[in-house]
Every structure is written in C-alpha cells, then in structure tokens.
TrEMBL record:
Signal peptide: 1-18
Any Pfam family the entry gives: Peptidase_A4
GO biological process: proteolysis
Identification of the protein by name: Peptidase G1
Species: Boletus edulis BED1
Length: 241
C-alpha cells in the first residue's frame, strides 16, 4: 500500500503534526553528550544507538537546508534521516533520502526512500527539490513490520509520504541524521560546504524526545578525515574539510 500526497492533505497534515511537535526542552548538558565516534568510514553525522536492555527506537525526524556542491561530474552523496541502518541491521531499514549529484549543468537532486529488506521507492516527479529549500524528513515505525516515511518541502508545502511493510522484523536499534556516500565513491566526495540538521527528534521506548547520548561518524579516505561533525542537540552540523 502506498500513500502519495501532492499537497498537504488535512489527514496527513494532522498526522505529521501530531507526532512531530517539539517536546519540552531538555537540559542543555544532557542533550549535548557525545559518547564515541563510530567506525563507519562512509557516514558523517550523528547516530543514536539503543543502549539499555529492551530499549527500542521507532522514530526519527530532522530538518535541513538543501546544499549546493562542487566536485567531479557524477560524484554524489546522500542526506539521510533513518532508523535501524547501523550494522548489523543494514537490510532492515527505514530511511528517507535526498541524493545530491554534481553534473555538467550544476547540481541535481533526487528524493527517495528505503523500506524493509532494502526496497527503494523514488519520489514522484511533482516532488521537486532545489538548492536552499528547507526539507523536513520523518521516518516512523508503526509496527515491527511496517512504517511510514515522509518528506515535506517547507518552501513549497508539498509532501511525499509512503507506507511500507514487509515480513521481516524491524530492528528498532538506532536513529541516524547523516550524510552518506558509497564506499567506492569516498575519494570523490563532493564539497558540500556545510549541512546542518535542526530540530532533530526521536522516540525511544515510546517516549518522544530530543536525542541524547549521540555518537558521531565522519567520512574517511585511507586515514584522511573528510568531514567534521559537531553535535549540540537538537542540532547536528556536518562540515566538509
């Protein structure tokens, strides 16, 4: 079953707002805790792992401004908000993504989502993304085997949403606000200057909150660090070096 919305329908608008309101502010010290840098060389950003016995993560949201980029023709990277993508759960994910690709005419953008067992759904032609626009990205696990991802273009008011389901059990073990690039393309990572996720939220064991205890990741190429991630939740700032 799929749900596509060309404009903000009343049902979807109410549904999104009901689950995406900012909770009361947490203590600044608690929000800013960074526990470690994770050993993934083609991610940059922040990850919240489930840490306690029985702890589950079922929701992630964040807002970012679509960047421009400079680099080799056909080089690209992904801006991603998702849950359950950290190893070993890489095949049981719920992600929503904007891919930025450098081409001969400048930069192009493609929105897409990834559901259970790696199934990919590309956004329809009417969901356009341009440099400088603000995008709200939301993923929500509804059950152990179903979920919803949503992209909202805050400049145009357009919403793309997909309901996904499958027979594979969802991991519910992490949430991520990251930039990614295929391992084979790390050497040609385009210069994206800075990408900042704002108003990041997650739901941990049923409680919606600004995430604490975030781990960071940075893209590396043969020992060279290519990004710098700074976290001061609800902000995640990723800079190209």
């Amino acid at each position: 079953m799929r749900l596509n919305c060309a404009l903000v329908s009343s049902f979807l608008f109410i549904f999104v707002l009901a689950g995406d309101q900012q909770p009361p502010s947490l203590d600044r010290t608690e929000k800013s805790i960074i526990t470690a840098e994770l050993p993934i060389t083609n991610w940059a950003g922040a990850v919240r792992l489930a840490r306690l016995q029985g702890e589950t993560i079922s929701y992630a949201a964040g807002t970012f401004t679509v960047p421009s980029a400079r680099g080799a023709t056909s080089s690209s990277f992904n801006i991603l908000v998702g849950i359950s993508g950290y190893p070993p759960c890489v095949q049981f994910v719920l992600n929503v993504v904007i891919t930025v690709t450098v081409n001969g005419n400048g930069v192009s953008y493609q929105a897409w989502g990834q559901g259970y067992n790696g199934n990919v759904m590309v956004a329809p032609d009417w969901f356009l993304v341009s440099t400088g626009q603000e995008i709200r990205a939301i993923v929500r696990a509804l059950t152990l085997t179903s979920g919803l991802f949503i992209l909202i273009n805050l400049n145009t008011g357009r919403v793309w949403a997909e309901y996904v389901s499958g027979g594979i059990m969802f991991c519910h073990q992490d949430a991520a606000w990251i930039i990614t690039t295929p391992q084979s393309q790390v050497t040609t990572l385009p210069n994206f200057h800075t990408v900042t996720f704002t108003a990041i939220l997650t739901k941990i064991s049923g409680t919606r909150r600004v995430p604490d205890n975030l781990d960071t990741v940075n893209i590396r190429n043969q020992g060279r660090v290519m990004t710098d991630t700074q976290v001061n939740a609800p902000f995640v700032i990723i800079r190209y070096l």
